[in-house]
Design brief:
The protein is α+β, with helices and mostly antiparallel strands. It has helices at residues 2-33, 40-43, 63-67, 88-103; strands spanning 45-50, 53-58, 71-73, 76-78.
């Protein structure tokens, strides 16, 4: 029984390490690809962990406009030319990375 418990604990530890690594990589890429005018948006990224839950956030008022990608709203272009597709492709990439890494465990 102790052997099974050790295997379980090792598995949980491996999963925790993978998730932490992928979160760190995602956080770094989000920061790196965030458009810069004054630098405030890039500096506003935060990553927190509470138990098993990780949160990456950026609470600047205009963040959603930039991160939703370039689009036409009421006949006017909104968003950044530096991040035309927004952050969805980055999030999708790291979801795939996480799935691949977790399958290895």
């Amino acid at each position: 029984m102790a052997s099974l418990l050790n295997e379980y604990n090792n598995l949980i530890s491996d999963v925790d390490k993978i998730v932490a690594r992928v979160v760190a990589d995602l956080f770094a890429e989000l920061q790196r690809k965030t458009p810069v005018d004054t630098g405030a948006l890039r500096q506003a990224w935060e990553v927190t962990q509470k138990g098993d839950t990780w949160t990456i956030s950026n609470n600047l008022v205009y963040a959603s406009v930039i991160f939703d990608g370039r689009q036409i709203v009421n006949g006017k272009a909104q968003g950044s030319l530096q991040l035309i597709e927004g952050i969805v492709p980055i999030l999708d990439k790291y979801n795939r990375v996480l799935e691949i890494e977790l399958r290895k465990v």
